[in-house]
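Hey, I'm writing a tutorial for new members on how sequence and structure tokens pair up, and I'd like a real worked example in the thread rather than a made-up one. If someone can provide the structure for the chain below, I'll link this post from the tutorial.
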Amino acid sequence: MFNIHPLRGRFVVRGRRTPQGIEVDVICGNMQMHPLPLRLDWANCSPTGFEWGYMGSGPAQLALAILGLVLPRHRALDLYQLYKGGVIASLPYDQWEIRRAQIDAWLLGHGATTARTRQEGAHA
């Protein structure tokens, strides 16, 4: 497992359904791809893995894992159910991508910031 907390710089989270099952990867700015960790150490919503496109335990685990890329544990735990309902539950069934900038924009829209968004605000 690669060290992902907090992930700095640009990245894309990509989910897709394959004949072997669901794959969710993080593609970093250097184009290296790594599986997104479940973050069961933070909360055990769905030990069987990620899901999306509805309100459930698999989408909750995905929301927590994605927010865990940019937020400390306590903030991710505060917001992941909202992120599940606002973003994860409406993702398309087959495949999707979420960019770092989209995560940051959602967080700003919900009154949350990351070190990156605070830094960008100071330079504006």
